[in-house]
């Protein structure tokens, strides 16, 4: 039995991850820690599950693995605390709000010989796994270009800090770019080397961060990609987001909708999506638990989170300068640069 704790309740996925942990036969959910008293007490009252004020108290309760769901700018100290205790970590994305903190997170776990996985559930989406296989098999010849979208509602109704430039490190670019860049890196086995980005606040002019963004990304192998990372869905949209990729090859084209396994239901003037297919969050957490048990190596690591964070931060530099930004991507598996 693997004893797992969730450190932080600020992230919109925290409750869903806890539901998954509670449903797994080989996992004991020890509890969640949250310094914010209002957030902690509300969750404890609604769930009836153990809630700890300090992250250290949850660690001291005896956990074998941890999932971090704090605000992004709080990831580093929590990961370092867990690494010092020798506890494997599944950390929400993006890995950090600065490249310095992302490096420190990876180095802390490397030095302590602790597993570090970035929460990229789309790596465990069957449609995207099939897409990876099609690229590997050259079903459309050599890949020439990608068009990717990761759209959704502005997440402030769920967690206001997502639109806080300090806590989140940015807005839609930081929130959504990392998913698509990670998928493209995975499919291509190539790193991004240049990014040009444009952003706006057209749909949410009162926000303190960008809410719309279009990126052009060039990979080391010459593939060109566009990324729409916007919070462009209106309030009341039936889901938090969606993700699509179209791959253009020398001999064909294919398109993937990662959230197509759903029913659309209309009731009393509202629309909702009812998922009937696979659950990438479940598959991701099951994979993490298996890796903690030593059954196999991690399929997605902290270094993957570091690469994706580097790309998002390069996009912000492009917005600031109005120019494409070239950057030397990190050598896979070597976070020491």
Explain this structure to me?
- It is built from 9 helices and 15 strands.
- With 337 residues, it is of the alpha/beta class.
- It has 2 domains: 119 residues, NAD(P)-binding Rossmann-like Domain (Rossmann fold); 181 residues, Dihydrodipicolinate Reductase, domain 2 (2-Layer Sandwich), CATH 3.30.360.
- The strands form 3 sheets. A 7-stranded mixed β-sheet has the order 12-11-7-10-9-8-15. A 6-stranded parallel β-sheet has the order 3-2-1-4-5-6, with helices on both faces.
- Strand 9 and strand 10 form a beta hairpin.
- The protein is globular, with a radius of gyration of 19 Å.
- The two termini are 38 Å apart.
- The mean pLDDT is 94.
Keywords:
337 residues; alpha/beta; Rossmann fold; Dihydrodipicolinate Reductase, domain 2; six-stranded parallel β-sheet; 9 helices
CATH topology of the largest domain, which one? Dihydrodipicolinate Reductase, domain 2
Oligomer: single chain
Number of structural units classed as domains: 2
Q: Tally the helices.
A: 9
Shape: globular
Q: Architecture of the largest domain in CATH?
A: 2-Layer Sandwich
How do the strands and helices of this protein lay out in sequence?
Blueprint lengths: L1 E6 L6 H10 L3 E7 L3 H11 L3 E2 L2 H6 L4 E4 L6 H10 L4 E3 L7 H14 L3 E3 L7 H11 L6 E10 L19 H17 L3 E9 L11 E8 L4 E5 L12 E9 L3 E5 L4 E6 L2 E6 L4 H13 L9 H20 L3 E2 L11
Write a brief structural summary:
The chain has nine helices and 15 strands.
């Amino acid at each position: 039995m693997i004893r797992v704790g969730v450190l932080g309740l600020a992230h919109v996925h925290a409750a869903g991850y806890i539901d998954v942990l509670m449903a797994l036969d080989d996992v004991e959910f020890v509890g969640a820690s949250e310094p914010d008293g209002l957030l902690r007490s509300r969750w404890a009252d609604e769930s009836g599950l153990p809630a700890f004020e300090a992250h250290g108290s949850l660690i001291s309760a005896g956990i074998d693995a941890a999932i971090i769901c704090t605000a992004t700018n709080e990831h580093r100290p929590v990961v370092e605390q867990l690494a010092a205790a020798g506890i494997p970590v599944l950390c929400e994305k993006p890995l950090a709000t600065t490249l310095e903190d992302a490096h420190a997170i990876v180095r802390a776990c490397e030095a302590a010989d602790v597993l570090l996985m970035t929460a990229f559930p789309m790596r465990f989406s069957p449609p995207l796994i099939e897409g990876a296989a099609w690229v590997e098999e050259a079903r459309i010849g050599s890949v020439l270009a990608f068009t990717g979208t990761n759209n959704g509602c502005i997440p402030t109704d769920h967690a206001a800090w997502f639109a806080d430039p300090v806590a989140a490190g940015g807005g839609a670019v930081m929130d959504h770019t990392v998913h698509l860049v990670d998928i493209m890196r995975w499919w291509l086995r190539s790193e991004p080397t240049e990014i040009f980005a444009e952003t706006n606040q057209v749909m949410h002019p009162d926000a303190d961060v960008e809410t719309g963004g279009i990126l052009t990304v060039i990979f080391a192998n010459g593939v060109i990609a566009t990324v729409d990372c916007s919070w462009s869905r209106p309030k009341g949209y039936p889901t938090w987001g969606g993700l699509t990729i179209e791959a253009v090859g020398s001999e064909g084209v294919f398109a993937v909708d990662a959230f197509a396994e759903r029913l659309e239901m209309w009731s009393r003037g509202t629309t909702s999506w009812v998922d009937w297919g696979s659950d990438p969050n479940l598959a991701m957490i099951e994979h993490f638990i298996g890796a903690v048990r030593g059954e196999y190596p991690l399929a997605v690591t902290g270094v993957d989170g570091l690469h994706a964070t580097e790309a998002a931060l390069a996009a912000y530099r492009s917005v600031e300068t109005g120019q494409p930004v070239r950057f030397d991507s990190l050598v896979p598996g070597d976070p020491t640069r």
